Amino acid sequence: MDINLNNHPVWDEFDKIFTQIDVKALVKEHLESCNYKVKGYWDGDEFYEEIAFISPLRAELADCSLGKTNTDCHSHRWMRLQFVLISDTPTSDREQANDYEEICELTLVLDADWKIIDENWLIDVESPFVVSRKNVEVQKV
Predict the structure, then answer these.
(1) pLDDT in tens, 28-56
(2) Cα 67 from chain centroid?
(3) What does pTM read for this prediction?
């Protein structure tokens, strides 16, 4: 196949789409809707009933993609946005360097109508900006 996509107009269209979206407002709205908490989180073999973020968070877009999934009867278009959530409060030993701690990664998958159809969290449960509550009775199957 001799198709070179490096200078293809599809990239300009892709950039136009993402410059029209306020992705930081989108993730902020999602965090506010869940009250800055994640319910039912597995970290390896550990189950956490609830994880709460105790610091104001800043979201940085790390990756984005558009996709299309074909099934027998339909095609589904989606957008995947991957964020790094960073504490807006520096730890005391990092304050001089203005270095803030990454708390987690959040991936949101949205359908063509901007509805969240999937989300995935990768949380640093050892972060000082995270409060976690385990449920000792739940066992991984």
Answers:
(1) 999 999 999 999 999 988 999 999 998 88
(2) 17
(3) 0.81
Work out the angle at residue 113's Cα, subtended by the Cα atoms of residues 30 and 75, and round it to the nearest 5 degrees: 125
Contact by Cβ (8 Å): 110, 78: yes
Q: Is 33 left (phi over 0), alpha (psi -120 to 50) or beta?
A: alpha
Which pair of tokens denotes residue 78? 């989606």
Question: How many residues would you count in the chain?
Answer: 141
Show the CA angle centred on residue 32, arms to residues 134 and 65, nearest 5°.
95
pLDDT tens readout for residues 65-98 = 989 999 888 889 999 999 999 988 765 554 544 5
| Count of Cβ atoms closer than 10 Å to residue 3 Cβ | 5
List all residues 6 or more positions away from 16 whose beta carbon is below 8 Å from its beta carbon. Answer: none
Q: Are the C-beta atoms of residues 137 and 47 closer than 8 Å to each other?
A: no
Q: Kindly give the residue spans of alpha helices, DSSP state H, lying in 20-141.
A: 23-33
CA distances from 38 to 57, 79, 120 (A): 14, 22, 10
